[in-house]
Amino acid sequence: MDKKTNVFQGIPASPGIAIGKVFLLEDEDFCLIHREIPKDAIKKEISRFKESLARTRSEMLATQEKIHKTLGKEYARLADAYLLILEDPIITRDVVKRIGEGVNAEYALFRILEKVVRSFEKIDDEYFRERKHDIQDVGKKILNNLMGKERRYLTDIESESIVVAHNLAPSDTISLRENLVKGFATNIGGKTSHTAIIAQGLEIPAVVGLKNITANVKEGDTIIVDGNQGIVIINPVQEILENYHREHEIQQSQIRELQKLRDLPAQTTDGHRVVIAANIDNPTEVKSVLNHGAEGIGLYRTEFLYFNRNDLPAEEEHYQNYLHVTQKMLPYSVIIRTIDLGGDKFVPLGLEGISEEDNPFLGLRAIRLCLKYPSIFKTQLRAILRVSAEGRVKIMYPMISGVEEIRAANRILEETKQELRREGIKFDENLEVGVMIEVPSAALSADIIANEVDFLSIGTNDLIQYTLAVDRVNENVASLYEPFHPSILRLIKSVIEAGHKAGKWVGMCGEMASDPLLTLVLIGLGLNEFSISPLLIPRIKKIIRSSSLLNAKALVQELFESKNWETVINRIKKHPTP
């Protein structure tokens, strides 16, 4: 009898298509029975727990070293979060205290972790809410060692497979490159989860957040992981399987063909030249940036320096990370975005005076935080300025809402320059400073802002959310997140025009820049720089090289002069550019 075909919609974590047989990493179901421990056995029970902690720590350190050798230092930092959890008083003190009350170690650990996980579930911020899975993973590792339970590992894979699991820890995902893993699908996780970050770094197709995928597959089932659309298909019928095999072959062929464009300019058929740069989250992605033909880095997110630690990064750490990227990218430039985090992220780092906010996304974050705590800002600015003497660097301020914030930030920048001059430290005196236009107030006053900066970069992810009042990760309203909305395209048009009128170049580092359906529209609007994911650079470059500026301008004119906006948009969506 044919197996039933099931289709699941999840979150696309890493692009590409993978087809293969299921290798199931089932979630461990521990039978955690409450046992009373006699007073004279409590000391021995605590020792058993501490031995398990030590064994778990040794395993994690070995994993961290493996990650460091395979992916580099920055990815190895992902394992730091797990080591910090092991050292947390919740584990080292509270569990021991519970055992001291006469409870067996397994049950004591389970109850303490259950309480912590419930607390994390109440956090609004996606990144921190996701960390509950890290705590659960660490708990399972300790329980495995306590109970002597053998776990199935990716090293057990003997043929090409798709891994299906409840979740994958860094110790799991590090094996992806070394074994026969073609892709993976997990019940939980989001775009900020450790597994998503590592999957993107390894360029392995992945879909996460599938809720109950493990309960709907069996070992050896045929599975399709579509990391482009976030779809997973279990036991596809022959027709679907053949279609996806064809699609996979087409994509692989396209990738090979697109790679031929790597060293060619992003230039239209009638000679109009634009720049295609890359967005990166950490220094390890530079290799991918260069391999895919980027002409610089248009957005270097620096937030990774603040994650998974209990202290603030020092100036030298900033400097070494930025130096690595800028030197690798020469002769191209690197735009370093200053800290784009909320104040809540700094509480664990010892920053005082931060109170809990009801809506942190509209609160003390990004440039607002830097202006309130200039010492943190200066540490980063000093490092960027020092690196500017070694490579081509530009500074970009995030979440600017008005011109006064730019002037305040520039005053701190000038103070920092004066300090370096007094210390005899060299830097680029002509360092360019720009801003992200991602708040409606900034877009609407772009003409004023453009006179204060050297360039503008449109951050469409937040600009769309703030303009349309839509949380794009909220499944109830995600369908309202529409880049083609008239208000969005009109704002982009006005920002580009304002920048050009002031003699400044205008780029875009939001996801709209990587949407093939919008490439021709953005060219027609006069966008100077596209900054996108390295993997998508060849495709956007092909579209640009296959189009003319004349046709792009004609499309924009038709769009803005049309009495029926939706008709033109629907035509663009049905007949995408080449």
The CATH topology annotation of the largest domain reads as TIM Barrel
Please give the share of residues in helix: 40-55%
CATH superfamily of the largest domain: Phosphoenolpyruvate-binding domains
Overall structural domain count: 3
Low-confidence stretches: none
The top-level CATH class of the largest domain is: Alpha Beta
Beta-strand portion reads 5-15%
Radius of gyration: 26 Å
Mean pLDDT: 85
**Main β-sheet, in a few words?**
8 strands, mixed
Q: Which architecture of the largest domain per CATH?
A: Alpha-Beta Barrel
Number of helices: 22
Distance between the termini: 43 Å
The order of strands across the largest sheet is: 1-8-7-3-4-5-6-2
What would you say this structure looks like, in words?
It is a single chain. This protein is of the alpha/beta class. It has 3 domains: 6-26 and 152-254, Glucose Oxidase, domain 1; 39-147, PtsI, HPr-binding domain (Enzyme I, Chain A, domain 2, Orthogonal Bundle), CATH 1.10.274; 266-574, Alpha-Beta Barrel (TIM Barrel), CATH 3.20.20. Helix content is 45%, strand content 13%. Strand 12 (393-397), helix 14 (403-422) and strand 13 (432-437) form a beta-alpha-beta unit. Helix 1 (42-71) runs antiparallel to helix 3 (80-87). The longest helix is centred in the first third of the chain and has 30 residues, at 42-71. The mean pLDDT is 85.
